[in-house]
What does this fold into?
Amino acid sequence: MKEVILLLHPVFGVLAILAAVWVFVEALNVSESGSSASRLRIASVLCAVCVWLTYIIGGYWYVRYYGTDKAIIKAGPWAFGHNFFMEVKEHVFLTLVLLSTYLPIVAFGKITSNKAARKVVLWVAGLVVAIGLSMEGAGSIISTSVRIGLLFKGQGG
Ligand code: HEM
It folds into this structure.
């Protein structure tokens, strides 16, 4: 069950990134006449829900289980995996929570008639994709740091 919790958070994280890509693509040619506006709004809500699920599940893992891995990382040759990447990840992620929560708020506005609102949707969706991908990258460096820490420990380090 422990490992399922660990892997569920990147699953929802990546689904949030895909939903933001969907919002971005729909926003490029959105019109009220077709169903693109309603698709965009559905994708924006999906994005927000997936980011919040990532936050709750990732946060639960961090509080409940990460302490052991943190000690292994800090005692190993890739201590930067925690000291830099995890520290940056847990702080920068908060901007993702704010941006993804804001996305449906602006998406349910007059995005077809208001060019400025459409630009905000494009920028917010784009930022969610960029920050989400950096979370993914940081996550894989952190878990690699755990593996390297375990190998180092196994070699009597
Ligand atoms: C878009 C959001 C996020 C994505 C895409 C993401 C992705 C990942 C990935 C791919 C891993 C490596 C998993 C493995 O192979 O073992 C990981 C590890 C980790 N993530 Fe995230 N993550 C996200 C958000 C968060 C949040 C919000 C937290 C909690 C504050 C968090 C805490 C962690 C921790 C503690 C690890 C290390 C797990 C360990 O080995 O102990 N992540 N993340």
Observations:
- The longest helix spans residues 115-154.
- The chain has a mean pLDDT of 94.
